[in-house]
Design a protein that fits this description.
This protein is 38% helix and 21% strand. It is of the alpha+beta class and 296 residues long. A hairpin with a 2-residue loop joins strand 11 and strand 12.
Amino acid sequence: MVLRQLGKPGNEHLQNIKESVSLARKAVQLDLSDGKSWSILGNAYFSLFFATNQDPKVLKQCLQAYAQAEKDSLEDCSPDLHYSRAMVHQYEENYSLSIAGFCRAQALDPFWNEPTNKLCELLEYLGKVSDLVENKGRLKGKKLQQIIKGVNIEKDLGPYSGGCYTSPTGHALKLSHAPLALLAEGRNVQRVIVGRVVCSVAMRNFVSFTFCMVDSDGFCVSVTVYNLASGQGVIIGDSVAIPEPFLERVDIQHKEQKFLFNNIRVASPVVLVVNGRKWSKEKLATPSLSVNPLYE
């Protein structure tokens, strides 16, 4: 919708996005069976998600709108719907669904290059991360052993060494150290991990900053950090501590390609302790993501 494109960054742009959501809701109410209106509402919610405080409820509303849209057989044949939803799934790191969405959009409109480009970028990214995790950053043996031996749990925990942590919700929690190999899938409550960076994954057009780290046992995982300011990051050898890590096990087969690795998702860089010091709000930035629908 045009309103989402108007206005300068800031309050004016946010108000335009909120108004676009309101108008899209009204359009849906005029005809609940109109898939195009539901699809536009989904896109509006996705814009609102990034323009505000990234409330997961807004992203859920976005996906619910897309689900309603595909109930319309005509809209289900729209490459824009499947492309837009694939972008949401990619942000949520639901890579299998994202790949399927890009493939569907690609099949519906072979002459639209964007789904093909995004699919290729995603597959390249997954291939890089899978390879770098498996081969521990592709560091040579001596360098890798130096990094592993350099992990000093007590020192690298920094302010978390006393076992205290204030969660994003403001609750004071006790933390205990956990080896990477023993993490459970999902949120590891009241646990903290420590490791050293073995590589970063350079990719254009990705919202997250990705790096790989090993712990004192030599176990390697990838880490995706969201809302990190431009130009910020970590380098090989840096120590990183992450409280209450959220673990995702990526296991995807796409045609001849196999992607298998463990990933830690970090919603905000300000929870990280790097080289014994907690990162400040200066590292924080609000991500933006352009969906670029074809037919809206």
